[in-house]
Design goal:
The chain starts with 19 loop residues before the first strand and ends with a strand. The chain has no helices and 16 strands. A hairpin with a 2-residue loop joins strand 6 (79-89) and strand 7. It is elongated. The chain is mainly beta. The strands form 4 sheets. Strands 3, 4, 6, 7 and 8 form a 5-stranded antiparallel sheet that branches. Strands 11, 12, 14, 15 and 16 form a 5-stranded antiparallel sheet that branches.
Length: 203
């Protein structure tokens, strides 16, 4: 460049990739991601895990929108998502690296709302709230010192939301998990769980 001449250039900024996470229930997947600094929006692709190519299911036209609910999913199937931030530079599309995530829609964890122990009868009664879409519940238990849970009862029906466990040992620590399940093609698709600890002791 000589004298007072000036030069200009165009810097093409590739949108920064987002970080992706998901929460599920038995019939939907909610995707959430971080906001892209340079993107104008987001492209959401999906496929069944290991099956064919990705298909565009949503074009989000604002970088401020950072979540999407996919209602077109089936319980127990695995889905793979790819999300790109995108922008347009001189009429040409430019997109980030993909944020990838594999998700399987299942029931959320069942939360035990109340427990009652009977020291004399050596029993524990567990209560929880019914979960929409559940075909039943599985009760699992382990004693302190044991590594694996044992299935102690299968309750068929959405409204069976209590269970009494008997013939327990006094003074023993027990850990329980309640899992909602949904019957799909003759198989149980079992949901996530939380753990509740109970000590059978005299009060």
């Amino acid at each position: 460049i000589k004298g007072g001449d000036t030069a200009s250039c165009i810097v093409q900024v590739r949108p920064d990739a987002v970080r992706l996470q998901a929460t599920t229930s038995y019939n939907r997947i909610k995707l959430k991601w971080t906001k892209s600094t340079y993107g104008a929006g987001y492209l959401i692709y999906r496929r069944e895990a290991g099956n064919g190519s990705y298909q565009l299911i949503k074009k989000v036209k604002s970088r401020k929108i950072t979540s999407y609910i996919d209602n077109k999913v089936e319980t127990g199937k695995r889905y793979e998502y790819a999300i790109y931030a995108y922008c347009s530079i001189n009429g040409k599309a430019n997109r980030s690296a993909a944020a990838l995530l594999q998700v399987r829609p299942t029931h959320r964890a069942v939360t035990v709302t109340e427990t009652k122990t009977n020291y004399k009868k050596r029993s524990v009664r567990l209560y929880w709230k019914s979960m929409a879409g559940a075909d039943g519940y599985i009760v699992e238990r382990r004693k302190a010192g044991e590594k694996k849970y044992k299935q102690v009862q299968v309750l068929k029906g959405n409204k069976k939301t209590a269970f009494t466990d008997t013939k327990l040992y006094r003074g023993q620590n027990y850990f329980y998990r309640i899992r909602a399940y949904r019957q799909v093609d003759g198989k149980r698709v079992i949901g996530r769980c939380e753990t509740v600890r109970i000590i059978l002791q005299h009060i």
